[in-house]
């Protein structure tokens, strides 16, 4: 729009009745903007009385450029609050990020409603936009009595919007009661609002705290999701395994054992704690020519001597039993002599043979 049009609009404002002042507001809604994109700035009118026209100066920060429409005017549109009022838009770029925008109804039809967006301005966001403040000044509205009403200047900070987020670990395996901390990386790194909300798909399996600490609850799988303030999401697939309770000690039912050759006895291993995850044990003999031991702890005496029976847990805990094997005592069951009778002269000799059973 030419300076002439702006000057014409200014004339319409200044020839009206003397300035008034109210608590009504005209402001731009703050938002985070995505670098390299076209974004829309939304200007809100909060009013307690009727107005049919306005004008304001807008100062854009570095990195924001007001766009032009196909007619070469600033790309400004009025909301539905200006429907049916035959409104004329006026705008001009003054340089150094400063512009003037305004509108008035030729039929003096007031803007509808008392709150909400009145004006939209499309801007180009530079790739290196790092955030900045949009300032509104020299704000003037025309009320239904043709009075010029001056509004207070306002401003709002526009940050950098995140375009993507990622979680430090896309997959995670922990055990019951174990914890692990997740973190989120924002793209771009200059994003203004880096707050996230953490949720778990199944809190009976895994929970997650407000700062991303995951705790395993029970064996299973769950999806941990991080959601940014502008709705971006990233997930971590969590597998919770049953807690491994290690064997702390092992004991044998007998620490000493005396057997006779051919005899056997059963040893019992006791694991502590009783809820240890792996209770498997192995048995071994230091001398299998003296005593052997089965996988179930049955000791068999082989021959006289000594041997050490050792039981070992899966994590290397041990206990021993000292085994003494005595020679087997075989009792005489019968004794015979041959001959059983003999006769002879005095002074003669003869041989008697004794037979012991078992031999």
Protein architecture, described:
With 359 residues, this protein is mostly beta strands. 25% of the residues are buried. It has 3 domains: 3-160, Immunoglobulin-like; 164-241, Immunoglobulin-like (Sandwich), CATH 2.60.40; 249-326, Immunoglobulin-like. The protein has one helix at 3-14, and strands at 17-21, 25-28, 32-33, 38-46, 51-59, 64-66, 76-78, 87-95, 98-105, 117-125, 132-143, 147-151, 154-160, 164-167, 171-175, 179-181, 184-187, 196-200, 206-208, 213-216, 220-228, 233-241, 249-252, 256-260, 264-266, 269-272, 281-285, 291-293, 298-301, 305-313, 318-326, 334-338, 353-357. The protein starts with a helix and ends with a strand. The chain contains 1 helix and 33 strands. A hairpin with a 4-residue loop joins strand 30 and strand 31 (318-326).
């Amino acid at each position: 729009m030419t300076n002439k049009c702006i000057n014409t609009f200014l004339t319409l404002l200044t020839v009206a009745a003397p300035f008034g002042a109210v608590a009504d507001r005209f402001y731009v809604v703050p938002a985070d903007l995505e670098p390299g994109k076209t974004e829309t700035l939304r200007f809100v009118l909060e009013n307690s009385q009727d107005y049919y026209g306005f004008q304001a100066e807008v100062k854009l920060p570095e990195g924001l450029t007001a766009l032009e429409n196909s007619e070469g005017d600033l790309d400004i549109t009025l909301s539905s609050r200006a429907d049916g009022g035959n409104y004329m838009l006026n705008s001009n770029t003054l340089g150094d990020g400063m512009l003037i925008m305004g509108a008035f109804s030729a039929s003096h039809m007031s803007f509808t409603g008392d709150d909400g967006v009145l004006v939209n301005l499309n801007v180009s966001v530079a790739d290196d936009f790092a955030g900045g403040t949009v300032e509104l000044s020299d704000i003037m509205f025309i009320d239904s009595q043709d009075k010029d009403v001056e509004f207070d200047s306002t401003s709002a900070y526009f940050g950098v919007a995140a375009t993507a987020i990622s979680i430090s670990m896309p997959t995670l395996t922990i055990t019951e009661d174990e914890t692990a901390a997740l973190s989120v990386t924002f793209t771009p790194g200059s994003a203004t609002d880096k707050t996230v909300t953490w949720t778990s798909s199944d809190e009976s399996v895994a929970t997650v705290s407000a700062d991303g600490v995951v705790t395993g609850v029970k064996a299973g799988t769950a999806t941990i999701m991080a959601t940014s303030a502008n709705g971006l999401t990233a997930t971590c697939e969590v597998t919770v395994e049953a807690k491994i309770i290690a064997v702390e000690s092992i004991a044998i039912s007998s620490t000493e054992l005396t057997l006779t050759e051919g005899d056997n006895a059963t040893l019992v291993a006791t694991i502590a704690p009783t809820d240890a995850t792996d209770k498997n044990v192995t048995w071994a003999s230091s001398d299998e020519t003296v005593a052997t031991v089965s996988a179930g702890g049955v000791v068999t005496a082989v021959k006289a001597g000594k041997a050490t029976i050792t039981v070992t847990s899966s994590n290397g805990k041990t206990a021993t039993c000292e085994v003494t094997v005595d020679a087997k005592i075989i009792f005489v069951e019968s004794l015979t002599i041959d001959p059983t009778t003999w006769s002879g002269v005095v002074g003669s000799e003869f041989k008697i043979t004794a037979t012991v059973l078992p031999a």
